């Protein structure tokens, strides 16, 4: 049996502005994203079925037909047995599920970046990788020159559901984030405990952390290793 190994890098959203809402309720964004060297690994072989192997994180990952890997296989009309070995935490704002789906699309030779948004707003960027400006609802990906940078992440043991954060943002009247991410006020209002981990990372780094996407991960630029913190580096596009 031939096994193909795929790598699925996480994405880090360095800035995010919500610039409008479409008639169908989808939010329009203007964001800068980078791929980082925190990766899930996928093993693809003949057959059918999906196994998701997750370290003891306290967060659940769906392994049923609604998992993004299963949906990506359906989108490209392929069948395969896939084992996903998770390192990117779920509900952390790092696009782990989207990265897994993008890895399957690349494996299948899918190159319709804008069309991949049917799987999720982060999938188009994860398909392109590197560093990019992302607009629309996520389907417009404009590559930017690669910059070699390091960041320190702190992911709390609580997750944030993207749809819940956007809903709270709407309920709050669309607040502007003062720290480069318009979703931060909504995420903190929804999960007040996030402040504790923000302050913990801020104390370690000596600067004010930013929220990654819809959360729950906080990040700062630079290397500040320590308990519960992970140093990552940017990756160029494949």
Task: State the shape.
Answer: globular
**Terminal Cα span:** 26 Å
CATH architecture of the largest domain: 2-Layer Sandwich
**Number of E-type strands:** 10
Q: Write down the CATH class of the largest domain.
A: Alpha Beta
* CATH topology value of the largest domain: Ribosomal Protein S5, domain 2
| Structural Rg | 17 Å
Low-confidence segments, given as residue ranges, are none
Strand content: 25-35%
**Into how many domains do the coordinates divide?**
2
Query: How many helices?
Result: 6
The string of secondary-structure elements, in order, is EEEHEHHEEEHHHEEE
Mean pLDDT score: 94
Structure classification: alpha+beta
Percent range for helical residues? Answer: 10-25%
Multimeric organization: single chain
Can you summarize the main beta sheet? Answer: 10 strands, mixed
């Amino acid at each position: 049996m031939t096994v193909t190994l795929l790598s699925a890098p996480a994405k880090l959203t360095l800035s995010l502005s919500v610039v409008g809402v479409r008639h169908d309720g989808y939010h329009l964004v203007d964001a800068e994203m980078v791929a980082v060297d925190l990766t899930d690994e996928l093993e693809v072989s003949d057959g059918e079925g999906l196994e998701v192997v997750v370290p003891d994180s306290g967060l659940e990952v769906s392994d049923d037909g609604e998992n993004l890997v299963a949906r990506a296989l359906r989108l490209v009309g392929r069948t395969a047995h896939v084992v996903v070995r998770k390192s990117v935490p779920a509900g952390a704002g790092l696009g782990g599920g989207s990265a897994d789906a993008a890895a399957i699309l690349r494996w299948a030779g899918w190159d319709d970046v804008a069309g991949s948004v049917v799987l999720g707003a982060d999938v188009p960027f994860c398909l392109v990788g590197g560093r990019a400006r992302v607009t629309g609802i996520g389907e417009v990906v404009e590559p930017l020159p690669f910059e070699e940078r390091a960041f320190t992440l702190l992911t709390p043991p609580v997750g944030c559901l993207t749809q819940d954060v956007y809903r709270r943002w709407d309920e709050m009247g669309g607040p502007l984030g003062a720290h480069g991410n318009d979703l931060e006020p909504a995420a903190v209002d929804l999960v007040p405990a996030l402040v504790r981990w923000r302050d913990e990372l801020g104390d370690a780094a000596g600067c004010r952390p930013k929220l990654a996407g819809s959360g729950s991960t906080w990040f700062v630029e630079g290397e500040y290793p320590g308990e519960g913190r992970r140093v990552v580096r940017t990756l160029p596009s494949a």
